[in-house]
């Protein structure tokens, strides 16, 4: 199993997708920076607010779209690059191959948020020379971690779409749909039932009236488990005709 | 050394009302170079995909080294190397990195295995080039390098010369022969090109419309494509009757062009000519001929003489 994980890691070497990881972290950080430049004359710099704004951009705009694309690429690249024959004719079961991909998704997706956190942290010193208090620092870092966990629950959906169509393009479409739909549904009473809007209300309060963490957690757990079971069943039985 | 390392029994794949593969039996013995011959769409690749676990058979079994290939983990695949259809590589990785990745998957520990595989296939100098920059011929060779990296006992090559120029075809053929001779690898090579199979294989399986028409050794096949005497006469029926009655000929047929073919051994053409002329039959032409594998293949596929000895 460790060998399979090492293989998945090696596959990312010099991949163009690494630029997307950098871009995915950089764009919100730059946007956040300029918003702060614009606001800096009005109010004193607040570490909590600075991290919060970056987190909001990552949560609402960047993560759903970028993660769907990265996950789609991770799970469907072998079909598109025609390396699937080689991947599936080794001495491992297909479920082990899938498991390796799910494991490697953690550092891949985590690197976007870690980079976003570090860029936000670093760029803040343009506005202040004070370090954030320990509680603000750990609270912000915890929120980035929680966002990663919530977004990770969406990995099986994007993976299922990519595997069904054997391409990462539909997964990318799913990401765009997710961003548009979450912005609509977050204003409704279904916010905690919709997998792309529930994280917004768990992590931050977008809709106080319907904030129910337990409902949100159930939504995310179901969102993780149902497509995961589908993938495990489908991928184990699917015929591979090309590649 | 005559143990069967691949055994296929009653393998069938049914798609949307069609049997792509229809009850195939096949056996490969250690040391064979098995030529899996068939036209495009005959079911070669589907069969190979089933035996590598990429496609689930509708019915039938595949046994590799005595172990059944199933849906789950198949550790026995460690003993098999394969290039199925197009050899795909990770475009962002170099040739050697692609092999390293495969080596990790197959549990290759020896560091010299990479150099050995690349030297064997003549790609050592290009090891640091990205696989995406390789020509098709180089990709085929890199595919073979990857397939032999873990020192497999069985190598499966699906149409390895597809799309290659004559020089490329020759190189790959030479490489396959070298692998069989020097590394003692059993090889299953599928092709729709008769001459390729004829030059490489020690055993042949002929597949057509999903059915295995014949499985035999190349030696037997060559013997079967024996010599015959071809006659063009003005009275076919009487000639046939005379040859059977007077010379005791048993295997005498009329081909589609109206020529009389005598397959029996030990008859002198001149004697036949003498007999027919004496009986007032005009012999326009008489040749000693030999069936080519192509003739045999065409006859077989068209439902002609199958397995006549």
From TrEMBL, chain A:
<dbReference type="Pfam" id="PF12730">
    <property type="entry name" value="ABC2_membrane_4"/>
</dbReference>
<keyword id="KW-1133">Transmembrane helix</keyword>
<feature type="transmembrane region" description="Helical">
    <location>
        <begin position="55"/>
        <end position="76"/>
    </location>
</feature>
<feature type="transmembrane region" description="Helical">
    <location>
        <begin position="172"/>
        <end position="196"/>
    </location>
</feature>
<feature type="transmembrane region" description="Helical">
    <location>
        <begin position="216"/>
        <end position="235"/>
    </location>
</feature>
<feature type="transmembrane region" description="Helical">
    <location>
        <begin position="97"/>
        <end position="124"/>
    </location>
</feature>
<feature type="transmembrane region" description="Helical">
    <location>
        <begin position="17"/>
        <end position="35"/>
    </location>
</feature>
<keyword id="KW-0472">Membrane</keyword>
<keyword id="KW-0812">Transmembrane</keyword>
<feature type="transmembrane region" description="Helical">
    <location>
        <begin position="144"/>
        <end position="165"/>
    </location>
</feature>
<protein>
    <recommendedName>
        <fullName>ABC-2 type transport system permease protein</fullName>
    </recommendedName>
</protein>
UniProtKB/TrEMBL annotation, chain B:
<keyword id="KW-0067">ATP-binding</keyword>
<dbReference type="Pfam" id="PF00005">
    <property type="entry name" value="ABC_tran"/>
</dbReference>
<dbReference type="GO" id="GO:0005524">
    <property type="term" value="F:ATP binding"/>
</dbReference>
<dbReference type="InterPro" id="IPR003439">
    <property type="entry name" value="ABC_transporter-like_ATP-bd"/>
</dbReference>
<keyword id="KW-0547">Nucleotide-binding</keyword>
<dbReference type="InterPro" id="IPR003593">
    <property type="entry name" value="AAA+_ATPase"/>
</dbReference>
<keyword id="KW-0813">Transport</keyword>
<protein>
    <submittedName>
        <fullName>Bacitracin transport system ATP-binding protein</fullName>
    </submittedName>
</protein>
<feature type="domain" description="ABC transporter">
    <location>
        <begin position="6"/>
        <end position="234"/>
    </location>
</feature>
<dbReference type="InterPro" id="IPR017871">
    <property type="entry name" value="ABC_transporter-like_CS"/>
</dbReference>
<comment type="similarity">
    <text>Belongs to the ABC transporter superfamily.</text>
</comment>
<dbReference type="InterPro" id="IPR027417">
    <property type="entry name" value="P-loop_NTPase"/>
</dbReference>
<dbReference type="GO" id="GO:0016887">
    <property type="term" value="F:ATP hydrolysis activity"/>
</dbReference>
């Amino acid at each position: 199993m460790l060998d399979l994980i090492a293989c998945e890691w090696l596959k990312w070497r010099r991949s163009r997708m690494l630029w997307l990881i950098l871009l995915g972290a950089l764009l919100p950080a730059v946007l956040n920076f300029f918003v702060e430049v614009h606001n800096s004359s009005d109010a004193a710099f607040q570490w909590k607010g600075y991290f919060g704004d970056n987190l909001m951009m990552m949560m609402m705009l960047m993560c759903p779209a970028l993660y769907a694309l990265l996950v789609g690429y991770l799970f469907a690249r072998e079909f598109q690059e025609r390396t699937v024959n080689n991947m599936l004719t080794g001495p491992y079961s297909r479920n082990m191959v899938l498991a390796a991909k799910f494991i490697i998704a953690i550092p891949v997706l985590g690197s976007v948020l870690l980079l976003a956190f570090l860029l936000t942290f670093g760029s803040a010193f343009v506005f202040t020379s004070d370090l954030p208090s320990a509680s603000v620092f750990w609270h912000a870092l915890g929120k980035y971690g929680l966002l990663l966990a919530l977004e990770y629950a969406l990995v099986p959906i994007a993976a299922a779409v990519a595997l069904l169509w054997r391409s990462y393009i539909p997964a990318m479409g799913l990401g765009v749909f997710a961003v548009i739909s979450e912005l609509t549904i977050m204003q409704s009473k279904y916010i905690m039932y919709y997998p792309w809007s529930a994280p917004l209300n768990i992590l931050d309060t977008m809709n106080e009236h319907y904030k129910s963490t337990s409902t949100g957690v159930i939504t995310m757990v179901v969102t993780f488990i149902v497509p995961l079971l589908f993938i495990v069943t489908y991928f184990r039985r699917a015929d591979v005709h090309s590649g | 050394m005559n143990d069967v390392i691949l055994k296929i029994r009653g393998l069938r794949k049914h798609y949307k009302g069609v049997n792509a593969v229809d009850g195939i039996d096949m056996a490969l013995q250690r040391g064979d170079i098995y030529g899996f011959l068939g036209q495009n769409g005959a079911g070669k690749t589907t069969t190979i995909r089933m035996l590598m676990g990429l496609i689930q058979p509708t019915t039938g079994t595949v046994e590799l080294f005595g172990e059944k290939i199933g849906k789950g983990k198949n550790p026995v695949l460690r003993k098999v190397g394969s290039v199925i259809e197009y050899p795909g590589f990770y475009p962002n990785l170099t040739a050697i990195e692609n092999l390293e990745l495969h080596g990790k998957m197959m549990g290759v520990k020896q560091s010299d295995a990479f150099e050995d595989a690349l030297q064997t296939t003549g790609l050592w100098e290009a090891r640091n080039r990205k696989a995406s920059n390789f020509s098709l011929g180089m990709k085929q060779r890199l595919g073979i390098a990857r397939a032999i990296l873990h020192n497999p006992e069985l190598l499966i090559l699906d149409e390895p010369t597809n799309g290659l120029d004559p020089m490329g075809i020759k190189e790959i053929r030479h490489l396959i022969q070298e692998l069989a001779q020097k590394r003692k690898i059993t090889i299953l090579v599928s092709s729709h090109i008769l001459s390729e199979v004829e030059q490489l294989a020690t055993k042949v399986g002929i597949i057509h419309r999903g059915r295995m028409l014949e499985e035999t050794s190349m030696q037997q096949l060559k013997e079967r494509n024996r010599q015959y005497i071809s006659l063009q006469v003005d009275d076919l029926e009487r000639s046939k009757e005379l040859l059977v009655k007077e010379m005791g000929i048993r295997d005498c047929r009329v081909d589609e062009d109206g020529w009389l073919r005598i397959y029996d051994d030990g008859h002198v053409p001149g004697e036949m000519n003498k007999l027919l002329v004496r009986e007032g039959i005009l012999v326009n032409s008489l040749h000693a001929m030999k069936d080519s594998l192509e003739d045999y293949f065409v006859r077989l596929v068209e439902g002609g003489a199958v397995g006549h000895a």
